[in-house]
Amino acid sequence: MPGVAAGPSIPASGGFGPAPRPGTGIIPADYIRVLSEWLRIPVTTTSSALVYFYRFDRYRKAHSQSAHAHGLKTVDTLLFATACVYLATKTTDCNRKIRDVLNCAHSALRPDEPPMRIDTAHWKFRESLLAAELVLLRILKFELNVDLAYWPAIQYVRHLFRVHPAPPPAPPVPPPPVPPRSPSRPRDAGPRVRRSNRMSPPPPPPPNAARRRARSRSRSRSRDRLPSITDVPPAARIVLQTAWGFVADAYLRSSVLDWSAHDIALAAVAVALILVNAEQAPDVDRLCEAFPPPRLGPCIR
Known about the structure:
0% strand; single chain
C-alpha cells in the first residue's frame, strides 16, 4: 500500500499454531508466564514481557482497520508473545539464547512431542521470531524502559516500618604514597632486565559451558530474590513478601497499563497490610498521608 513503510514479512502462522480465539486456545499471558518458568528468568523480566505484549495488543486493536497493511490482523499472537519474552531478556540484562527460547516455546506449547530438531521448521521459527521482534520494536517505538511496581513497594514498606537500607560500604583508604627511590645507576645505563628461574603460573582455564550456565542461572535467581532489609520486625518481611506477590499477579492483567507503578505498589501494600493483619503493621491511612493518595479503591479492584 502507498504510504506504508515496508517492514519485515511475517507469515500468518509463525510456527507455533494459529492465533488463539476468544474463549478458546491459549491465553497469551499464561503462555508468557509458563515460558518464563521454562527459561528460568526472574519475575521482573516476566513483568516487562507482559507489559510489552499488552502494549502490542492495544496497538493491534486500536489499528484494526489498517492492520492488514502491517499484517497484524492475521499474525500469530503466540509468536509475538515469544518475541516479547525474548526482547525482555535483552532489556533487563538477563540474556537467553534464541535457541533456548525456541526450544522452551516448543516444549511449553507441545509438551507431549519430542524436542525440536534443527531442520527447516526450526529455521523457519527462528526467522519468524526475529522478524516479529523487529516489528515489535517499531510498534513500541523503541520505548523499552518499563517502570515496574516492585521497587516502589519496597520503598513503601521501608517507610512504613521506618526501615532504612544498609549504608553503602565506605570506600577503601588509599595506601600512603611511596617516596620515589634515588636511582643507583646512571641514566644512560639502559633498562635493567631481571631474570628469574621461577616460571609464571599458567593462566586459569576458560569456564566450560556448564559453568557458564550455572553462573547465568545464579545471577538470574539472585534478581528474583527480595532485597535484604536489616534490623526489621518480622511483620515487615511478611508484608513485603505478600505485597511482592500481589504486584506479580497484577501484571497478569492488561489493565495494569492504566495505572502507574506507584499506584500498583501502594495498592499491593495496602492489601498486604489488611491480609497479614500484623500487630506491628502501621495503619493504611498513615501510608496515604505520607505519599500522594492515588485512587486506591479502583486500583485494588
